[in-house]
Amino acid sequence: MGGRIGVALQPLAARLAWHLLQGNTLHADETPVAQLDPGKGKTKKAYLWAYRSNDLEPVPRIIIFDYQSSRSGSHARQFLGAWQGHLLVDDYVGYKALFSTEGKTTTCIELGCFAHARRKFFDLHQANNSPMAWEALQRIGILYAIEAEAKEFDIETRRQLRQEQSQPVLDALHAWLLNTRFNTANGGASAKAMDYTLKRWPALVRYAETGHLPIDNNPVENSIRPIALGKKNWLFTGSERAGQRAAAIQTLLGTAKLNGLNPAEWLKDTLEKLLAWPNSRIDELLPLTPEWIETLKQNRSEKTMWSG
Length: 308
Hints:
- The protein is an alpha/beta fold.
- It has two domains: about 1-110 and about 215-300, no CATH class; about 115-210, no CATH class.
- It is about 55% helix and about 15% strand.
- It has eleven helices and five strands; from the N terminus they run αβββαββααααααααα.
- The protein has a five-stranded mixed sheet, sandwiched between helices.
- A hairpin with a 4-residue loop joins strand 1 (about 25-35) and strand 2 (about 40-55).
- The relative contact order is 0.17.
């Protein structure tokens, strides 16, 4: 039953992916899942890659789950294709090729996650009450307080606030990190926490130059969390094809949730309509807010029509 539903919903998931890639900024992350390994009586590791829209841009809220057999960065490159824009990721090496400009005409710009940088200092403080880590947490906390204040601002107002308030805090944090690191011995946990942030600095501070780029990757991590918790219940997927069908369902239900819809009600209503629904109006079935559905209807044109 679940397999048939996944197949039926695949065109909707594919259409959501198309809309996602019209945005200029994306979050990306990945989480391991167990997949049955036929003939061996055990499971192997597959990956669920996740791509999320940027809430600070005027785009539909979308989460895409892409089930793949490995953590190879080639999967991210295949999904993104010729997409251009800012991609917010952690420091996983699989994404690095996306940011290389060698032999490329398109540009993918890296954004760093301040939540990951903060976590290094948080763990250090939890472990040994490090005064250095506490100082770093206080400084990073100021940046997050500014973001909380700017949450409901428009893009230009947020850009001005970041320029006036965030940039000086970032400059002071960078100078403090460099000075503190100079006086810290190599190899220890304190040095490693600072080295992570300093190495990632250009990508971490890029958000503050604008009013539309996010400070961290929490939106996509929050979308993945229910999947990670659910793995304890469903244990493993039966095959790569089954994983791909499940990813399509999770894409649609996750996007429905992001848009304040009841996922179960949306699914029931959509399955009742789907078989007789024309491909030319597929946007109207997507689990987006009524406002976005209306916008997509109004913007339908030769350029944006789906070919099926």
